[in-house]
Every structure is written in structure tokens, then in C-alpha cells.
């Protein structure tokens, strides 16, 4: 019987050949993804809880599991990606909005199961999820928080936004402020920007020496391996927005008085360093997309797709925990009798 704890992403001919190779590679990825999607569906059915009060997820416009299509692997080049693409999804915006709403109840139910298990002792109970969101300004990080994570009980979510370090934070190592915000057992934690700012802005703005920046990649890998071994599933997402789309979104903020609060003049400063930031992100993907904590590059020019894809990643992570509802640590029949007699 379980024991409850205390509270406490040259020539014309040569160019055509290169594009053909990329097309074949993408087709192979889609084929593999479809096979994995079918396998995942079979696993979900095998682990379905007949007593769950959340109905089975209805048919959607997903044609393939997006996770392998978005995951950063060997030879990945950010410059080869299309921010307007919708990998694995055959629907349009209206379909995406519908499918996001359809899956929200399952995400909520699985998060509740994650939290319920955390109240009991046992190695499988010490589980949590960390969603790391990175992207250029106006890439949609806040929208992910509202439309994806916002579908679950707020009590099961922690949110941290990492801005310019304070004097106190600068007096410690760069992971000090990060560790303080890690999710507890049973929680979904969301980082709106993260420890990666220390190798992104840190490199582009030369906030530390190149030697110090280079040393941080290995420290980050060790840190993420440590927390995954302790039971935290890490989902790292780069919201890949195009410069044209960013310009349109920033312009919309300037045109609307109710959005002025979201605009920051520093956004233009960062925009002028676009290429440098893209190079810095490429280094991040090259050096920190690991088996324990891979990166996913999510096309983000279509907000609806980005939200849907990230929701899918979160849903997959929760399903892959294969958690059951924890058993009662009391005699259910006795309590029924006591209730009837009360």
C-alpha cells in the first residue's frame, strides 16, 4: 500500500540536386514519423485507463508525430528551416484551433495524474516536467504559456521568466537563479527564456569572455542530465520566427495602445543583431541537443501551429510517463460505509 508523503525544433543544377536531396530526406522523416505516430497511438491504447473521466482524443489533422520532425539531430542547420512550415500537420488554422482545444482536457488530466502521484512515496512518484521556451522577441513564448500550459490547473504549474540578471544573481554562478525555479515533484515548470540566455545574449553582447561562454555549454549539459536523472523530463523548444513576421508583430504592438506595454525599445536592438543571434542559436543546437534533453525547433510564423506543436510535445512527455492513478492509502469500502452512516 502506498504511503502518502507529508506536504511539504552553386549552379542551378547543383541547387536543384541539393533541394531534391533535402526533399527526399524530409520525406523519409515524414515516413518515419508516421510509423512512430502509429506506434505511439498503439501504446496509448494499450495504456488507456478505462476508468479515466477524460474521453479518448478524437481524430485530428495530425498526419505524423511532429516530435521527430522538429527534433534537432546530427547535421541540423537552422538556416535550412522554414518558419512558415507546419511539419506533420495537414490542417489549416481553424483545424489547429479545434485540435488544440480537443487535446486540452487530456493534458489537464495527465497533469492532475502527475500531481496526484507526487503525493506518495516511491521512485516513480518523483516526476516533473520542465518546458524551456526560447526564441527571438515576439516569437510567441507568452502565447504558449497562455494557450498550452494555461489549460491545466494553475496549482500544478510554475512559471519563471529570466530577464537581465540582478546584482545578487550576478554574484552567483549562472545556474544559481535557474535551480531556484525548477519544478517540484508533480509540477509542470515553464521557463520563458532560461539558462540559455547566458550563452546567447552572453555571446552576442559579449557579457563574458569567449572562454567562459564556451565552458558553459558543458556545464548546461551536465545540469540537464542531472535533473533528468532526478525525474524531470526536459522539453526544450526554440520558437522559430522569421524577421518579416517579427517586424509585423512588433509593428502591430506599436499600432495598438493596448499592446504598447508588450513593446520594448530593446527589441529593435536585438533585431539589428538577428544574424548574430541565429549563429548563437546554431551553436546552442550543435552543443546542447542531447539524448537526455534534445532541442525541438518549432516553426512559429503561424502562432496556431506553434501552440499546437508544443502542446503535442507536452502531451507526449506526460503520456510517456505511463502513470496510473495512485491507489488509496485507506480502505475504500470502509469509508463508503462511514459516509453512508454519517
TrEMBL record:
Molecular function via GO: polyphosphate kinase activity
UniProt keyword annotation of Transferase present: yes
Domain of life: Bacteria
Biased composition (Basic and acidic residues): 10-34, 41-50
Cross-referenced InterPro entries: P-loop_NTPase, PPK2-rel_1, PPK2-related
SUPFAM superfamilies documented for this protein: P-loop containing nucleoside triphosphate hydrolases (SSF52540)
Pfam families: PPK2 (PF03976)
Transmembrane segments: none
Limits of the Polyphosphate kinase-2-related domain: 122-320
Alphabetically ordered keywords of this record: Transferase
Presence of keyword Transferase: yes
Region of interest (Disordered), ranges: 1-61
Name this protein carries in UniProt: Phosphate--nucleotide phosphotransferase
Source species of the chain: Subtercola boreus
Organismal lineage: Bacteria, Bacillati, Actinomycetota, Actinomycetes, Micrococcales
Amino acid at each position: 500500500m502506498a504511503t502518502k508523503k507529508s506536504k511539504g525544433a552553386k549552379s542551378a543544377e547543383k541547387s536543384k540536386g541539393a533541394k531534391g536531396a533535402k526533399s527526399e530526406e524530409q520525406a523519409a522523416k515524414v515516413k518515419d514519423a508516421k510509423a512512430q505516430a502509429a506506434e505511439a497511438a498503439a501504446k496509448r491504447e494499450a495504456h488507456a485507463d478505462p476508468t479515466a473521466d477524460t474521453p479518448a482524443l478524437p481524430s485530428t489533422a495530425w498526419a505524423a508525430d511532429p516530435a521527430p520532425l522538429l527534433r534537432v539531430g546530427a547535421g541540423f542547420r537552422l538556416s535550412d528551416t522554414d518558419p512558415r512550415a507546419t511539419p506533420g500537420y495537414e490542417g489549416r488554422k481553424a483545424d489547429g484551433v479545434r485540435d488544440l482545444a480537443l487535446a486540452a482536457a487530456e493534458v489537464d488530466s495527465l497533469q492532475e495524474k502527475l500531481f496526484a502521484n507526487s503525493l506518495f512515496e516511491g521512485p516513480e512518484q518523483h516526476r516533473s516536467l520542465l518546458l524551456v521556451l526560447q526564441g527571438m522577441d515576439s516569437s510567441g513564448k507568452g502565447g504558449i504559456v497562455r494557450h498550452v500550459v494555461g489549460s491545466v490547473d494553475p496549482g500544478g504549474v510554475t512559471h519563471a521568466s529570466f530577464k537581465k540578471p540582478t546584482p545578487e544573481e550576478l554574484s552567483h554562478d549562472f545556474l544559481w537563479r535557474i535551480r531556484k525555479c525548477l519544478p517540484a515533484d508533480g509540477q509542470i515548470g515553464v521557463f520563458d527564456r532560461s539558462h540559455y540566455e547566458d550563452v546567447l545574449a552572453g555571446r552576442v553582447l559579449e557579457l563574458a569572455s569567449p572562454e567562459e561562454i564556451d565552458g558553459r555549454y558543458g556545464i548546461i549539459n551536465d545540469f540537464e542530465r542531472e535533473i533528468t536523472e532526478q525525474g524531470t523530463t526536459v522539453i526544450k523548444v526554440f520558437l522559430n520566427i522569421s524577421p518579416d513576421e517579427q517586424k509585423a508583430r512588433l509593428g502591430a504592438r506599436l499600432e495598438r495602445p493596448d499592446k504598447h506595454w508588450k513593446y520594448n525599445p530593446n527589441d529593435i536592438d536585438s533585431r539589428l543583431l538577428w544574424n548574430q543571434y541565429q549563429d548563437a542559436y546554431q551553436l546552442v543546437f550543435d552543443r546542447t541537443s542531447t539524448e537526455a534533453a534534445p532541442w525541438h525547433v518549432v516553426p512559429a510564423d503561424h502562432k496556431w501551429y506553434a501552440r499546437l506543436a508544443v502542446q503535442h510535445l507536452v502531451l507526449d512527455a506526460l503520456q510517456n510517463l505511463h502513470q496510473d492513478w495512485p491507489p488509496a492509502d485507506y480502505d475504500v469500502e470502509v469509508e463508503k460505509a462511514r459516509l453512508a452512516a454519517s
